[in-house]
Write a structure and sequence with these properties.
This protein is of the alpha+beta class and 117 residues long. It is built from four helices and six strands.
């Protein structure tokens, strides 16, 4: 997995936008103004939103990720090393869907539908 791969996958989600809200080279992926993934300027990995704290803990216990520094416990950090593209694609999709489902209905209605590749 690499920064380029994550950015390529995330860019394919309907309404997904990237910004650098803190400066210094971060890639913060958002839908409807809410972040679902973030690649930091220093740490070699991507921080992803999980549906809940229990899912994040299960993924940490399974060795898929670790605690994402500076984020709530419902986020994990997936290191770039040793993670297959399909796992990255799946986890990014779950993070995107989690945030999108929590958006106001009016905002959701304004987004194009999400279709699986």
């Amino acid at each position: 997995m690499s920064r380029e791969m994550v950015n390529r996958i995330a860019a394919g989600f309907p309404g997904a936008e990237v910004s650098d809200p803190w400066g210094g080279g971060h890639d913060a992926w958002k839908v409807g103004g809410k972040m679902f993934a973030c690649i930091g300027a220093v740490l070699p990995g991507v921080s992803l939103k999980c549906p809940d704290v229990e899912t994040a803990q299960m993924l940490r216990d399974a060795g898929v990720g670790e605690k994402a520094p500076y984020f709530h416990r419902s986020w994990i950090l997936m290191p770039f090393d040793g993670i297959a593209e399909e796992e990255v694609r799946h986890r990014l999709g779950v993070a995107y869907d989690t945030i999108r489902a929590g958006l106001p209905k009016k905002v959701q209605a304004g987004l194009p539908p999400r279709v699986e590749p």
